[in-house]
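debug: dumping io for the single-chain case to check the tokenizer round-trip. Nothing else runs in this session.
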Amino acid sequence: MSSSAELHLAYRIANAQVLPFPYPHFFVRDIFPADYYARLQAMLPDPASLVPLAEARNVRGYDERFVLDLGAESLARLDAPRREFWEGLRETLSGGAFARLLLQKFGPLVKERFGAQPVSFYEEMLLVQDTTRYSLGPHTDSPRKVITLLFYLPHDESQEHLGTSMYVPRDRAFRCPGGPHYPREGFESVWTMPFLPNTLFAFLKTPASFHGVETVLDPDCRRWLLLYDIYHHALQAPPSAPEPAAANDLKFSF
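debug: decoded output
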């Protein structure tokens, strides 16, 4: 990514207004320069380069989600122009400065969560394509999640209705530390982010950050997005869920 495109991205995020309800979040249009987004559209890979999420992350229940990890091994499957493009974007997002920008933006709330203890963070990036029948019930994400960014990458505005929905539980006192996905009957939809070209939905993981995706009914749908997540390292990872090796761990003391 060029320096001007990187500055554009930083400007749009740094100056976005964080909304507090139902949990801290923001939505940004024109997140990339127009020429860069046009280039990104041209560099979307052949869907055959993606693998089922179950294969990439050993999880079940996401048969309509296909992903490309932006690590070197996965990108090696792409042709040279696409590999170079996505390597450039990965380097911009994983260089440390981008994560620090996000952690500072949600700084007081991150500090409230972790207190004075030193915290080590790591990032994950996945290029995603969801297909017809994809659905995601209300959930708050993994307990290790700290911040989630969803870069929406549709070609045009015809998929506007396919964005991420924010929910509140009908029992307003209900909270979840993370993990389970819940039936929609126990929740009310507050807002659905418009799934528009070149936009970003970002939010802070909290026990109330319930979100999901209503069932995608569009025929022959290809719902493209880039997931960028910041996690914190657990003090002791359970054997069944080892943490990925991270080349760019970020360490902070609040």
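debug: round-trip ok. Residues 3-236+245-253 form a domain with the Jelly Rolls fold (CATH 2.60.120.620).
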